[in-house]
User: Fold this.
Amino acid sequence: MAMTLAKICGLSEPATLEAALHGGAAYVGAVIFPKSPRHIPPQEAGYLFERARRHARIVAVVVNPDDALLAQIALSLRPHFIQLHGDETPQRAAEVRRLTGSGIIKALPIHDEADLAPVADWDGVADHLLFDARVPAGSDLPGGVGASFDWSLMTDRVLAANWFLAGGLNPQNIAQAVQVSGAPMVDVSSGVESAPGVKDVALIREFLGHLHSGRPHAKDCCS
Assistant:
């Protein structure tokens, strides 16, 4: 079986980016969304993530971005992928690809089987889909709140392209999540933080170590 690839998202400091790269993360993400505790401005992200360019795919995570922001991201960060985490349509995603020259990852909020209905709309539009837990009503954030969904909804599901499992993943549950869902790729953010927006080097190493070894870990290393 091929090794499951990991994306460490919401990175904003050199030490945690280095931990992700040294641990074998295939994707590293910059959240460019001011409401998020993980927000990093495009120019700062460009400076930080340049060191990752030869080692991992760089992803800019945005929520309903306007053209001006996309132009700034394309100039400063030059991401391999734009992750659309808002209400973007397939038509808008095609525009984003044209404006930035980047590939597209589209995040879809999932609670039950009915939420998987839009998947077909993204065939040929998104390079990858990312299935994240639907956040509670009234939340200012579209993700990154530590919520998860029923991983068995993804079991044996055949999609046109490789996809990410996200939502509530952490070092303690990642092996089980992959085993149940069959995810070819996983995305983690809050699950490797010591506080909202504060990535933890030890948790990043632990997450990637357990993912690559396939062994769950019974003890929570951090409170």
Remarks:
- Residues 201-213 form the longest helix (13 residues).
- The CA atoms of residues 8 and 188 lie 5 Å apart.
